[in-house]
TrEMBL record:
<protein>
    <recommendedName>
        <fullName>AP complex subunit sigma</fullName>
    </recommendedName>
</protein>
<dbReference type="GO" id="GO:0030121">
    <property type="term" value="C:AP-1 adaptor complex"/>
</dbReference>
<dbReference type="GO" id="GO:0006886">
    <property type="term" value="P:intracellular protein transport"/>
</dbReference>
<comment type="similarity">
    <text>Belongs to the adaptor complexes small subunit family.</text>
</comment>
<dbReference type="InterPro" id="IPR016635">
    <property type="entry name" value="AP_complex_ssu"/>
</dbReference>
<keyword id="KW-0333">Golgi apparatus</keyword>
<keyword id="KW-0813">Transport</keyword>
<dbReference type="GO" id="GO:0016482">
    <property type="term" value="P:cytosolic transport"/>
</dbReference>
<dbReference type="InterPro" id="IPR000804">
    <property type="entry name" value="Clathrin_sm-chain_CS"/>
</dbReference>
<dbReference type="GO" id="GO:0035615">
    <property type="term" value="F:clathrin adaptor activity"/>
</dbReference>
<dbReference type="InterPro" id="IPR011012">
    <property type="entry name" value="Longin-like_dom_sf"/>
</dbReference>
<keyword id="KW-0472">Membrane</keyword>
<keyword id="KW-0968">Cytoplasmic vesicle</keyword>
<dbReference type="GO" id="GO:0005829">
    <property type="term" value="C:cytosol"/>
</dbReference>
<feature type="domain" description="AP complex mu/sigma subunit">
    <location>
        <begin position="10"/>
        <end position="145"/>
    </location>
</feature>
<dbReference type="InterPro" id="IPR044733">
    <property type="entry name" value="AP1_sigma"/>
</dbReference>
<keyword id="KW-0653">Protein transport</keyword>
């Protein structure tokens, strides 16, 4: 049985460059495109304008913004006021560690050119905003296995002649 205290829900995860460009955005709440765009703009301006030495937790409307800067990227999670900030910060760090191992010292360009892989890793960590996996080894194993499947299907797709109606 899973204890309720171990469950936490993330409303959204953003990866934003120091220049304010969104590199990855994953939403687990139902919101319109206009509302998401406004939230990204507001959250990004809040995070980027904060002094470097200040706390990584910001109360924002009915939410909490949890962020951490790694190299040139800000990893930002939006949670409800009732959720635990430290668990969320640890989940962000886990995501960064998995990205770092997967890409070998991840950088902003890895996220830009391999965004689909970053989303896949994120999807292995969170389902519906809830953290599902906490083992770095297991996440990396699944992601590597998926990449192998994709490579095999690409090779087979080019080698096989098309059959069926045209």
């Amino acid at each position: 049985m899973v204890r309720k205290s171990l469950l936490f829900w993330i409303e959204s995860i953003l990866l934003v460059s120091r220049q304010g460009k969104t590199r990855l955005a994953k939403w687990y709440l139902n919101a319109s495109l206009k509302e998401k765009t406004r939230l990204i703009r507001d959250i990004t301006s809040l995070v980027l304008s904060r002094p470097h030495k200040q706390c990584n937790f910001i109360e924002f409307k009915e939410k909490k913004i949890i962020y951490k800067r790694y190299a040139s990227l800000y990893f930002i999670a939006c949670i409800s006021k009732d959720e635990n900030e430290l668990i969320t910060l640890e989940a962000i760090h886990l995501f960064v560690e998995v990205l770092d191992r997967y890409f070998g010292n991840v950088c902003e360009l890895d996220i830009i050119f391999n965004f689909h892989k970053a989303y896949y890793i994120l999807d292995e960590l969170f389902i519906g905003g809830y953290q599902q996996e906490s083992s770095k080894k297991e996440i990396l194993r699944i992601c590597t296995q998926q990449e192998d499947y994709m490579d095999e299907s690409k090779e087979e797709g080019f080698a096989r002649p098309r059959t069926g109606p045209r």
